[in-house]
Design brief:
Elements lengths: L1 H7 L15 H12 L5 H16 L7 H11 L4 H26 L26
Amino acid sequence: MARRAISRVARLPGLGHRTHDEDPRTIVLFALAREHGLAGDGVTLIETLREEVGRRIRPLPINVDGALAAVLLDLGFEPVAARFFFLVGRVAGLTAQVSEEMHRERPMRITVPVAYDGPPARRLPANGED
């Protein structure tokens, strides 16, 4: 994987962070996984990849996406399921960012007043009804 990234000059998913030399979320996730006996091949894989990339390219931290992928693999989740976990984290982060912006800063987003003009609400069947 490191060799392929070097030849393609590609970014390695799960490694690198714009701000941190070591992602604090990764530290916590891996500590919890180890504490509960859940760290396995996934954690070992991403840590080995980080070491190899550090030797071949440059030192890069494991970011939260890489840590989540490793822990989810160790928990037995299919790789595609990890995408849902990533989405949940992103939605929570975006929601917090928008809320903070609305309450603490001058809004950067354009707000457009909208009035719904579609069909009227309809009654949905209750459980067991057709």
